[in-house]
Structure formats: structure tokens, C-alpha cells
TrEMBL record:
HTH cro/C1-type domain span: 14-72
Taxonomic lineage: Bacteria, Bacillati, Actinomycetota, Actinomycetes, Pseudonocardiales
Coiled-coil intervals: none
Name of the protein this chain belongs to: Transcriptional regulator with XRE-family HTH domain
Gene Ontology molecular function: DNA binding
Domain of life: Bacteria
Residue intervals passing through the bilayer: none
Organism: Umezawaea tangerina
Amino acid sequence: MPVDRPSPALAHRLKALRLESWPGVAITQKQLATAFGASSPLLSSWEAGKVPPLARLAAYATFFATRRSVEVEPYRVPDLSELTAEENALRERLLEELAELAGSGAPGRSFWYFPDRYDITIVVAQLTEEQMPLTPYTDPLSPDYVELYTYADLDSLIELHGHIRSVNPGSQVHFRTATSLSPDDYTTHLVLLGGVDWNVVTTDVVDRVELPVNQAQRPDVSDVGGFEVLEGGESRVIEPLVVHGKLIQDVAQFYRGVSPYNKKRTVTICNGQYGRGTLGAVRALTDSKFRDRNEAYLKARFAGHDAYSVITRVTIVNGQVVTPDWTSPENVLFEWPEGLG
């Protein structure tokens, strides 16, 4: 979302919702736009075929799930906590229908959709003073200080945070540094970015779950490290490819399993030997050109398993990350559990 090509079927349905949902209630485009915090021309473009973002479709589903949305002018989109169980069920059906018409698929089939609508916390490492240059933006005493400049894997965080929020409009999505998590944060759905060198929560999770993968730490910046995997009782190390100091191929780990801190929640790890590998693992399931086939790959390989992992090759071209396609065998270097499909 948004989808570039127009969707006449979705446009017709959105207009029908506005005009036909409640007999005797005539909702104008201006009234609905005001409720959504949008402009009338923007809402008109949606009814003409332009596909709204998923967050806007969620607003439609919430608004038309209850007549209380139009009890008092100006009309409003109720808070999800106000919906009854019946209204919430209607909202979910409407959202699934609208997402299907938009051509994006129902959010319930998206890897990053969490149907329990519980809080989601993305966790990154925070750079030490030695790891970041001292500028006014990284100096806490400077008026120009920007905290995000001190975060590791910032490109991955921005890519993933926006995507998770768009497909989970009913959930609170937070991001935290690994050393600033509260006890309550640990019990949410956790998404961990970065590896055992910096992200102490990734280290703790890997120690607590059964996984035949061990990330070799990089005690010195000149070390390339790698992922040690156990196959057939023997171990091997899968290393990135660095030529004359230039990263050609990174190696990344993707893992999804039951959270060791709350059995009703999940933990997901996107972790490269370098930052570009972490971004590659993230983009495997956010990039609109590859996420559907990669999601299908995970479902085909690991259906019925609560925990699974893929070690993937991440190709770097002119410094740019190429999203890995897991349906291409050369990009899947190791997977666990093995022998599925």
C-alpha cells in the first residue's frame, strides 16, 4: 500500500459505504473527509479509483462498523476501545474486504500483521560514544541533539516501523533501544534489529531459544565474523564476502518464534553481520516486489512450526542493498527446521 494502479471495484465500494450504509443518513464527502482528517479532494480521488493507504482503509472499516460514528456532527472515527465485540468483528470483515479490493491482500495474511492487536516493540542497539562521530546532532548537551542519530540500524528501523504500523492500525507500535526496555516492553511482540555484537536483547533471546545457529562476534572492526550453523552433526561458518575492504555480500539471519518472555507473543530477529544485512532481512518481507513470494516461501517451508529461521545471502551493488528472493536457492544458505516443503 498504496497500490499504483487504480481499483474501480474498491472505489465503488467506498462510495457505496458512504451513501448506503445507514438509511436516512446522507454522508457527504466533506463530512467523511473531516472525520478522517483528510481533504475533500483526497477523499474524492479515492472514490474515483485511487487506492488509499491501508491506514485509511482501516479508518473506513472503523467508521462504518458502528452507527455511533454519525450520532453527532462533526462525524468522527471512534477509538477501537469503544467498539463492541460485534462491531469489532464487523470492522475486521470490512477491513479484510477493502484490503482485498485494493489488491494488497487481507492484512491477516501479511507476515507483519499481528491479529491479536497487542503492542509491538521494535528494538535496536544504541551506539556508544566510540561508535559514532561527535557532532552537534549526537551530543546530548547540544541544542541540536537528535536522539535518533545515536541509534544503530536506523535505515532498517525506519523501513520496518512504517510498514508494521500500516498493517497493524489497531496496535501500538513502539521502538526502543536495547538498554531502555521496560518490563512491560519485554512482554509485547518483539522485533529485534541487529546482532549479538551490539543488541543485548538479541543476545539474550538467542541464548534462551533452541536454534542451531550461532553468530560469531566481531571483536574488531576488521573481523568479518559469520554465522556458525550445525548441519548433520557438523558445524560450518557462513561468512560475508568482503573484497579489499568493500562489502560485496552480507549474510543475514531471519528468525520468528515464540517469545521466551511471554508465550502468547512472538519474537522476530532481523540480523546481519553488517547493517546492510539487517536491512536485507527486513526488506525481504517489506519490499512490495518480493514480500509476497518470500511470505509464500515461509508458509510452504515452515507451516505448522512455531519457530523457524533462514540464513540468507544479501547482495550489495554499488553500496545498495538488493532485496533477497528466497525462492532463488542461491539466496538461502541455511534454514531451520530442515527438510521441509
